[in-house]
Amino acid sequence: MNILKVLRDKPWVHSTASATLEQYSGPDPVAASQVMLRFVLAIVSVLFFLFIITFLSRSQYPDFEALAGSPWQPFTDSSRLWFNTALLACASLAIQWGLGGSRSGKLNITVAGISAAVFFTLLFLVAQFDLWLRLQSMGFYLSGNPANSYFYLLTAVHGLHLIGGLVVLTNVVFRVWYNHNIDSLKAPLQLCTTYWHFLLGVWLVLFALLTSRPETINALAAMCGF
Amino acid sequence: MQNVAIADQPDELHDPQTFITKYVYSQDHKVIAIQYGITAIFVGLVALALSALMRLQLGFPDAFDFIDPSSYLQFVTMHGMIMVIYLLTALLLGGFGNYLIPLMVGARDMVFPFMNMLSFWFYLLSVIVLLASFFVPGGPTGAGWTLYPPQAILPGTPGYDWGIILMLVSLVIFIIAFTMGGLNYVTTVLQARTHGMTLMRMPLTVWGIFTATVLGLLAFPALLVSAIMMMLDKTLGTSFFMPALVSLGESLDYSGGSPVLFQHLFWFFGHPEVYIVALPAFGMVSDVLATHARKNIFGYRMMVWAIVAIGGLSFVVWAHHMYVSGMLPAFGFFFATTTLIIAVPTAIKVYNWVLTLYRGNIHLTVPMLFSIGFIFTFTHGGLTGLFLGNVVIDLPLSDTYFVVAHFHMVMGVSPIMVLFAAIYHWYPLITGKMFDEKLGKIHFWFTFLGTYAIYLPMHYLGFLGVPRRYFAMGSTDFIPESAQSLNASITVSALIVGLSQLIFIYNVFWSLRAGKPAGHNPWEATSLEWQTPDVPPHHGNWGPQLPTVYRWAYDYGVPGAEKDFIPQNHPVTESEQTAGEPEGR
Fold first, then answer.
1. Which of B1, B7, B300 minimises the CB distance to A11?
2. Inter-chain CB proximity B190 and A35 less than 8 Å
3. Do B239 and A146 lie within an 8 Å CB cutoff?
4. Residues 66-125 (A) with a CB less than 8 A from some CB of B
5. Which domain holds residue B168?
6. Do the Cβ atoms of A142 and B236 come within 8 Å?
7. Helix, strand, coil % (nearest 5) of chain B?
8. Is residue B24 included in any domain, yes or no?
9. What is the pLDDT of residues B190-221, one digit of tens each?
10. Which residues of chain B have pLDDT under 70?
11. Which chain B residues touch A29 with a CB distance below 8 Å?
């Protein structure tokens, strides 16, 4: 839809063309769900964008100590976060695999793909929680420093979005279980897959930001005018 | 996604059978709209009562023992937040958005009815949590509706403990509710329009609600972010917004946070919020004016463009609320310029409303009276906005009653005038009964004249430098004695206006019981919501077949037509195609 063309339309000019068309039979549920997902992704993007902007702004105050860059900072060696990232990437690949199965009508592959996606996502969440505990044991508490606060906050908000996705995906799993109708699954599974890939993308951005050295953060903040 | 219940087959619809499913646990957009409406009006009356208490203190200081400085600030805060978020946003989008979108675009219901129902229940929960703060130790927050840190969460501010927490929780729940509802509104507009209902054939009401919803979906995350971060500052001791400070002689654990960061986030939401309220009102008043002036809306395309332009520009003006917080002069110049630019599409709308009335067949019905009243109040509020949008004028006027008068005229009274116009206009469709015209007119004149009796003098108080938010003026030399008499007069006017709303409440209930049957399309309107087979519309809205749309929503006074209006679902005749274009299109 070309919005500029739409906005140039002259509705007061009458045409009899529409009278000759067939009777309308209601909207397409799949298309409606896709539109809704686009809005959801836009809203979630705005949410994380705003968090990131506040992070960059707050990083320019003297008490901010980035979590990487010096030997005593926890993410100077970010291998644990790479491991967690791999888990989420596996979840993303698995759901894509399940989607492929549903497209080719293979129920077993669909179930296996979705189950693996749920499994890896749960594992990612547990691994993130374990990382929190580890940070705490190292003395990096939530209120100790704004960089710590942002780490806990952003990973929590990201995790909550994954949990929301899991609720929907669980619903899809139950529908596989009860319906055995693979055709009805394609559309919702496609939406879930898009959402999973999107959250992987968000995580990669957060990962890069939260493990950045002070110089990188300062450069980003300067680019934003802070 | 499984909640999509929008098929055209009536037997596939979620037709409610019992009282509970029909009126309580209902997925029908009309019932949800009425639930939103009743809840919003109820909580709005609470806010109205709070404003009466504030006015009593200001008009007659120290005459009422039960109003102390703390409770005064709590009344101010709760009044502001309730009116802006829980009344105006909820009633305009949750109420009228829900009722009108599916009917105006020719759909059977919202696209995701279950989510729509959840939206209302989350909204109700947010209202309950908010009102619960009246009953917790310390009472509701008295931080002002902007909830600025650090004072919002520190001792010395009323409700700094439980009150602010409940306020933030309530806002988070409200945002979730709004998002669920908003996703429905935009998806329904984009995907569930009936055959022939192109975007540019939609009534301006739908354009206004649609654009406002997009604004809300993109702006409310800023409030969510600030609410979450302030909650963490309050409960877990983080320092996102809290600087190092000493409170009551004690050094606190906070360090280095930025209160101005909160202000940026808040107003990045707060200014679009003005248009989240205004745009639906712009749309609805356009339709009411066209219908009751029996004339097509002047400059339909320009009206749509103006709505879209205002929506876009509303995201780049937020810092004009923060001139006194301090900013680079270049930023002040930028935000003053964008503020003046946004006045251009807004002014176009005002001109077009006036030109719609010009040489129209004006019927001075109650909805029309309120709509004309809106043009007055909005123009006045808008003009004072031009004053305040400029840095050099804003600085001395900031935090005076001039600002209070401005924003009440532009986004308090004006949307409420439209809300009354809309309620009176669509009451026959919603209830199937006509309201009492005489009572409606009495209600209008009390409200309209009373509004001016309240807010015109308030501008003058602002020019005198009378500060806002003060419980009492104390011994301030620069404020003359006469300001107090003005304050007393404003209070008397406010009480009269407040009490006159009882006429409206009485009219609504009396007419519901004893009003004349409205019949089909009593205003002889063209838009689709009036063309349903039943009045009020039954579940599914359209009977066995969805309507087909052949024309825009403003075919009033078409030359050569049998009547002075042609509904959108009437086919176009050959003679119409060859007829010339009416003026003002």
1. B300
2. yes
3. yes
4. none
5. 32-245+257-578
6. yes
7. 65, 0, 30
8. no
9. 999 999 999 999 999 999 999 999 999 999 99
10. 1-16, 577-585
11. 1, 4, 6, 111
A62 chain-B contacts, CB cut-off 8 A: 256
**Would residue B475 be called left, alpha or beta, if left means φ above 0 and alpha means ψ between -120 and 50 degrees?**
beta
CATH number of the structural domain spanning residue B81: 1.20.210.10
Query: Which of B542, B537, B546, B548 has the alpha carbon at shortest distance from B570?
Result: B548
CB-CB under 8 Å, B256 with A146 = yes
Nearest to A12 among B108, B112, B552 (CB): B552
Distance from CA of A41 to the nearest CA of B (A): 11
Q: Which residue has the higher pLDDT, A1 or B525?
A: B525
Say yes or no for a CB contact (<8 Å) between B256 and A31: no
B296 chain-A contacts, CB cut-off 8 A:
12
Q: Which two tokens stand for residue A133?
A: 């505990």
Does residue B3 sit within a domain?
Answer: no
Q: Provide, as residue numbers in chain A, all residues whose Cβ is less than 8 Å from the Cβ of B253.
A: 143
Paired tokens of B255: 């360090």
Best residue in B153, B197, B238 to probe A by mutation, most A CBs within 10 Å?
B238
- Residue B247 belongs to what H/E stretch? strand B246-247
**B571 and A19: CB-CB below 8 Å?**
yes
Give dist(CA B208, CA A212) in Å, integer.
43
Left (φ > 0), alpha (ψ -120 to 50) or beta: where does B559 sit?
Answer: beta
Residue B236 to residue A31, Cβ atoms within 8 A: no
Identify which of B217, B238, B265 has the shortest CB distance to residue A50: B265
Supply the mean pLDDT for chain B: 93
| pLDDT confidence of residue B11 | 46
Query: Would you state the pLDDT for residue B580?
Result: 52
Dump pLDDT digits (tens) for A20-29: 455 667 788 8
> B258 and A58 in contact by Cβ < 8 A?
yes
Q: Give the number of beta-carbon pairs within 8 Å between A and B.
A: 172
- Tell me the backbone φ, ψ of residue B467, rounded to 5 degrees: -75, 145
SS (HEC) of B145-157: CCCCCCHHHCCCC
Is residue B356 situated within a structural domain?
yes
Q: How many domains does chain B have?
A: 1
Least Cα separation, residue A151 to chain B (angstroms): 12
* B395, B387 Cβ separation under 8 angstroms: no
Min distance A90 CA to chain B CA atoms (Å): 25
- Comparing C-alpha atoms, which of B120, B58, B160, B150 is closest to residue B492? B58
Task: Report if residue B585 sits inside a domain.
Answer: no
**Residue carrying structure tokens 């599914």:** B540
Q: Give the C-alpha separation, A18 to A9, whole Å.
A: 15
Q: What are A140-168's pLDDT values in tens digits?
A: 999 999 999 999 999 999 999 999 999 99
Partner-chain contact A18 B196, CB within 8 Å: yes
Residues in chain A, total: 226
Interchain CB distance below 8 Å, B265 and A63? no
In chain A, the percentage of residues whose pLDDT exceeds 70 is 94
How far CA B54 is from CA of B11, B49, B495, B515, B565, in Å, comes to 54, 9, 11, 36, 48
Nearest to A158 by CA among A94, A204, A193: A204
Helices (H), chain A: 3-7, 29-58, 79-103, 107-137, 146-179, 183-210, 214-223
Query: What's the CATH number for A78-223?
Result: 1.20.120.80
What is the total residue count of chain B?
585
Query: Which distant-in-sequence residues (6+ apart) come within 8 Å of A201 by Cβ?
Result: none
| A7 with B301: Cβ contact below 8 A | yes
Q: pLDDT tens, A41-93? A: 999 999 999 999 999 999 999 999 999 988 999 999 999 999 999 999 999 99
